[in-house]
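thought: fold this chain, then report.
action: predict
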Amino acid sequence: MTGFLVTNAYLKGEKFDTLHNHLVNCAESMGISLKLKNNEEMLFCDEACDFVLFWDKDVNLAKKLENKGVPVFNSARSIELCDDKAKTYLALENTVKQPATIVAPLSFYGADYRTFAQKAAVELGFPLVFKERFGSFGEQVFLCNTVDEILSHISGKPFLLQEFIKEASGEDARLEIVDGRCVSAMKRSNKNDFRSNITNGGTAVPYTPTDDEVANAVKACKTLGLTFGGVDILGGGYVCEVNSNAHIINLMNVTGVDVAPMIFEAIKNKI
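observation:
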């Protein structure tokens, strides 16, 4: 079996190299020839393969590969739904418990959002969470206590405002789901930041999720069409975010569970 591991040509760093090399080596140990290709290279690649493990968010490229008949994991649709936090929220609405969320209305040419921010603040209360709709590792996520703070974070990029779950401040659980099963989980916490991400200084320990947390994480992944995914759950059972290509090295270092071979087994079962 042959495959391509598709990464981003313009996103570089040791943590990405470590992850990519781990996936390639794991595939080799399972009898899979996995070639590392970045998204720029794939645009001009005529080589055939049995599947693509798409560890990027270049949805247009993923869709182009699918149009050629190549099985892509995760699918272009699933990546798109997870990459845009507004689309994640709307896809999961009325399916799993989520913090109350208001997606900012579409605007053009540097619109004044003050009236919207005032109305949203009345509905959500302060403090509330400001999130740009696209981003990873807790970037461009802020806790706001005033309308002016909300406005200070608006940069012209799409955003949403979300209820702040006080009992979950600085803490969440990351559940890794593969092929409809929870295969590993960790509890993340940060005493100095309301965001629990390890990248922001958070720490993590192995975690045994509740039956409800597992059920919600599995349901979220199924709804979004994910073969594998990392689901972030806040205290009180709120699904916060879903990641189509979660950084599994941190999870492995914390729990000792290597998710990579499970991902390849799931792919084998689907092609």
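thought: worth noting. The mean pLDDT is 95.
final: tokens above.
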